[in-house]
Amino acid sequence: MLKTFSIGGVHPHENKLSAHQSIIKAEVPAKAVILLGQHIGAPAKPLVNKGDVVKVGTKIAEPGGFVSAAIHSSVSGKVAKIDTIIDAGGYPKPAIFIDVEGDEWEENIDRTATLVKECNLTSEEIVKKIADAGIVGLGGACFPTQVKLCPPPSLKAECVIINAVECEPYLTADHQLMLEHAEEIMVGVSILMKAVKVNKAFIGIENNKPDAIRLMTKVASSYAGIEVVALKVQYPQGGEKQLIDAITKRQVASGALPISTGAVVQNVGTAFAVYEAVQKNKPLFERVITVTGKSLAKPSNFLARIGTPMKQLIDACGGLPEDTGKVIGGGPMMGKALVNTDVPTAKGSSGILIMNQKEAKRGEMQPCIRCAKCVGACPMGLEPYLLSALAEHAEFERMEKDKIMDCIECGSCQFTCPANRPLLDYCRLGKAKVGAIIRARQSKN
Questions:
Q1: 404-417: per-residue pLDDT in tens?
Q2: E-strand spans in 282-337?
Q3: pTM here?
Q4: In total, how many domains does the chain have?
Q5: Is residue 328 part of a domain?
Q6: Pair 158, 257 in one domain
Q7: Dihedrals phi, psi of 336, to nearest 5 degrees
Q8: What is the DSSP letter of 261?
C-alpha cells in the first residue's frame, strides 16, 4: 500500500501539461534584475556598486544575518543601479540591476558535464561551501540550506528526506530534473547525508511519476543508504510536515521544528544545487522553471538564469494567449497572481502558470453552510472556516490561540469549499498579522 500523510488532503486535477518536455536552456536576458531578498530571513547586503563589472557566478551580495543567503550574479556585465522593483508577491523590493555584456563565467566554476562522485570534504566544509554558494530550499519556502543543515545542539538528525513529490498541479520542473540528472541528484543526496552526519536518506516521489520512480530507484541502488519511497498522489504531500508523516509516520508537534522528528527535509532541486555547488564550485544562479497553461502554445521546462524577466520565458512559449485571465507565480494552489510579467525570476520561482479567463474567474462567494469540508481537507487539523471568520473580524489574539501559525497556506480549504469562500486569503492575512504580533512581543522581551 502506498504511503501518505495521516489527515486531510485533496485531489486537484494534475494538469501536468509540460511533463516529459526536455529542459531547455533559456536565453540569457539583456538585463538581469536580481532581488536581494530571495529567501526567508534577512535580505542580503550588496557587495557591488553602480558601474562595477561582474561575471556569471560573482558574489554580489552577502548574507544579512544568521538566517539569510548570499546572492550571485547570473550574468556578466555592468551593474546599472541598485533600486527597487515589484517582486512576485506584488511588493517593492531592493534589487541589483545588471546590463548584460557577453557571458563570461568565474574561472573556478567547472562547466564540464563530467560526473564527480567522490567528496572528501568534512561536514563543516560542505556546509560552508553550501552557504558560500547561496543555496536555499528550492521547493518554494527558500529557507537558507546551511541553516537547516545545522540544527540546534539539543536536536539530532537521524535521516535526510528528499522532497521529490511536486504535488502542485501543472508544475513539472522537479520531475524532469530527475529524469535528466538522476546521478547528480544522488551525489547531492549523499553530500547532504554527510553534512548532517546520517547514513539514511529517503526520496519521496508521488506515484504519478512512475518513470522517475523507476530511474531513481535504479540509480539509488549504487548509493549506500538511499531509498526511494513511492507515495500516494495526494495534495499537499510535498508539505514538509506532511512528507515527514508519510515517510516516517512521525508528526511534527504544533510549534516544533521538523528536525524534532529527526528528519532534515530538502527539495530534490536543492540536492542538485548542492551537487553543483560542492562538486562543481557553481553558485545558485539558475534553476529549472515550468512555464505552462492550457491555452499556452508550448508548455515548457526552462533552465533559466535568476533575474530573467518572466515575460521572456512566456514569450519563448509562444507569448501570452488572448484568453489570459491571470498569470500566477508558482502553481494554482499556493501561487500568487503577478501584477505584471516584468517580474524577475528568483531562487523560489518554480513555475509560471498562465490561467485562461474561465479558470481565473472565481465563483461567486456564498454564505458558509457549515459543511466542514474545509476542516476535513486541512492537513494541519485546523478549522479554516473559523480562522477565516476571525481574520475577517480582526480577532487576531484568538487566531493565535487557535494555532493559525500552524497553517501551511496550502489552499486545500479554499479548493474544497462549496460556497467559494476566500478561506486561504483570510488565513494568509491573519497569519501575517499574528506573525507580526508575535515578533513585536519577542522584541520587547
A1: 999 999 999 999 99
A2: 286-292, 300-305, 324-329, 336-337
A3: 0.96
A4: 3
A5: no
A6: yes
A7: -130, 145
A8: G
